[in-house]
Amino acid sequence: MVKPFTPQLVYVEPDALEYPSGKRLIKKFADMGVEIRETTSHNQIRNLPGENHFQKYRIAKSTLVIGVRRTLKFDTSKPSAEYAIPLATGCMGHCHYCYLQTTMGSKPYIRTYVNIDEIFEAAQNYMDERAPESTRFEASCTSDIVGVDHLTHHLKQAIEFFGKSKHGKLRFVTKFAHVDHLLDADHQGKTRFRFSINDDYIIKYFEPGTSRLHERIEAAVKVAEAGYPLGFIVAPIYLHDGWEEGYLEMFEKLEASLPAFARKDLTFEMIQHRFTKPAKRVIQENYPMTKLELDESKRKTKWGRYGIYKYVYQDEQQEAIKDTLGSYIKRFFPEAKIEYFT
Length: 342
What we know:
- It catalyses: (5R)-5,6-dihydro-5-(thymidin-7-yl)thymidine in DNA = a thymidine dimer in DNA.
- By secondary structure, the chain is an alpha/beta fold.
- Helices cover 35% and strands 21% of the residues.
- The protein has eleven helices and 15 strands.
């Protein structure tokens, strides 16, 4: 079982100590005996420990920066939500295919933002602009927020903030099973708690440092029992030898564990594996022994929102994925809603 994340090293921006959450976190890590360093800005972090790139990368992934979110303009987050709410960036997992490989660039450390009330105020402004329509906020665009929240509790605060809101809804997804501190949050049914799930082959070979499938499913049952609307993202859907059987087993395990009441308002999102040329370079540098298939000649190109081509599966492969996984969902969870396939 993957233990809850504990940073090896913590950096703090001086401004963060002006916020109650910043003071609380520094005291927490000092009491835990974690090394704490000061930095004027996360951009100024240099000379992380390590003899070579490989070591430095892994130490960076276990480094936490406590800082202030400067930009309070939220990115859009289609098709999952209207906006991405920035509570943290970076992830402690080591998923080989992750798009954070390139968006985080050479700074793969985890950052948590302590000006949480200012972030909520910005979210309120977005809600007011769209009222009386509801506004959905995605909290996991730039991080696996659950993976760090047992330390920060910023996600828990966000759940309760949106629970009290008139027009707001919160969504996030995780590969971690460390959910116990979120079970008593006053969510008022306004937060959809989603788990990223995949077949055993993909979790074994491409998702080191994350909770195993049975742990995620056990956590999902706890979340459903706590009254949260539940969802699953099957991602990335990756074609390997025996993929049809692998995904069938995954759905069988899910169906065997999920209580009937959790199926009434259940959503699925399906995302095929994709990569870009810059991502391929970074993946092969950070995980040189990966089994991940990254052959551009076997894929088709799709124009991405950041002005760069993505390599996705060929049309007939995409149809096979949609038909196969769609049939599994209809068979095991006939009441569930498939939100999208991309």
